Structures are given as C-alpha cells and as structure tokens.
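Let us practice reading a record.
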Amino acid sequence: MTFAALVVLALTQTQPAVDQSTNTGFVTATYRGVKDFILRAAEKMPAEHFVFKPTPDVRSFRDLVAHLTDANHLLCSPALGVPNPNGEVVDATEKKALGRDELLTQLRASFEPCDRAYSALTDANAADPLPFFNAKRPRLGLLWFHTSHAYEHYGNMVTYLRLKGIVPPSSEPRPSGN
C-alpha cells in the first residue's frame, strides 16, 4: 500500500473535527489517523512477540514502539514550547527495559502532548519558528515531520505484524456504513 493510500485510508477512518481543506486541518487529521493506527498496531501485537526482530540488525517491535514514544516527546514538545521530558536523551524510553503493558501505557501518554500540539495548530501560527536541533523550524513543518515519521514507523509495524500473521489496522475491513 502506498503512503498516499495510507493517508487517504486514515483520513476516511477517523472522525475529524477539523477542516481538512486547510493545510493545518489536513495535517491534524492525518496525525489523528496515524495515531490511531500506531496505537491499534501496538495493542494487537501479543506480549510474546514484542521482542520479535525480522532480522538481527533492526529494532525489535518493542524497540520500535519505544522509539515512537520517544519521538512523540521529541517532536511535539517544541510545538508546545515545553522541554522534552526525556531531556537531551533522544532514545530514553528505548533504553529502558519496559514490558509490553508499561510500554503501551507510556506510548498512549506520549500522544497527549501531541494531541495538544495539533489542537493548538492554526493557520495563524503555522509559520511560527520553533527551536528544533539548533535551528528554527516552522510549527507546521515540525508537526508534518512528526506525522511523516510516525507513518514511516507505522509501515515498519505493518511488516512486523504481517510476519506474525496479524492483520494490521490499516488493512482491517472497515465497518459497514463507512
């Protein structure tokens, strides 16, 4: 499935309360779709498969979920004007020996600042320069990068799920009437 098809699918499966005809509304709706896919994918993977690696040189599914948790803090904190709760450690969660349930709790919690950042995104503040890695980035650009990064790793999750015989959320049948 192409990235564009995933975006369209995500947008049709979410209940957006935003005007998708604007750049900021489209980015917010896209974020909500990938958030849903990531959470559902993480929840679908059984605990015994969280350590699964398709090959020895890639992250385990657990490490992928931890990486997404860290990325939410890293990329959404600047959009809120607050420090990253992990400080300067980019992969703090990934370095912790967390079990599936605790990791899922942290993943869910890591989306809270992102929810606030996307809810605060408007056409009026989209171009505001925000500090990010010793440079200034426009708020919309930073949040679009967050969404793109999340979809990149959701694509990884799809592969891991499929290799374990699990249908990923973006390939599940849609409920009738949608």
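A brief commentary: The helical segments are 3-13, 23-44, 61-80, 100-120, 139-163.
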